[in-house]
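Table S2 (text version). Query chain:
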Amino acid sequence: MEIPHILRSLGFNDKEIRIYLTLLTGGPTSVRKLAKDTDINRGTVYEILKSLQEKGLAGMYHKHKKQFFLAEDPEKLMEVTERKERSVAAMKRELAEALPELRSVYAHGGAKPTVKYYEGHKGCTIILNDVLHTMGQEEEKTYRAYSSIALRDYLYREFPTFTKERIARRLHVRVIAIGAGGDDQPLAERRWLSEKKGSPTYSIIYGPKVAFLSLGANETPLGILIEDAAVAETERIIFDRVWETLR
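Corresponding structure-token output:
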């Protein structure tokens, strides 16, 4: 890996990289010479040197009433990395504390239905994770699904532990199966609409959301997620009516 790339990953911009590497390779130097060697104006050089000093990456001393700057041991970069890690950890804690409020704003952010489109196996995984998260917030812990044999092998390909996660979170599911197959699972009820032919779409009704998954060209999974309480309630009413008609 190239050194400039490493420094960029630590948050250095291009000018900071030029000045730091010039200090590192050239030894003690003045602001004037550093500006000339890097083709960066003196004011900017001085500000960057102050920043490098604050990070512990550069030092300064006086000689003949002039200021000279030099790079500190590169080992100091490890301290920069550790400070960055601590900062990220603190930010994650703050974000975790703020999430309930953010979710509240997100859930009530608008009157219009939201429609999201997902593609590929990662898209399926995003929807399945959203099922777990959303149902974890709901009082009623039962969601509903129209399960199609045509989609089963694709839906869980990148999330094979979904069922274990669902059971661990004590989430129930009612499944209307379309097509043969499907194993009995804890906290799951299954009734068959048809055991002969599958449906081209797999549907999940959960909380205020409805997800439709199908296969596109080259058997690529496609997902459409509708976030609207009224739409979800309508789908729930239809599902429950069909459920009562099946053995």
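Notes on Table S2: Residues 55 and 80 are 7 Å apart (CA to CA). The chain has nine helices and nine strands.
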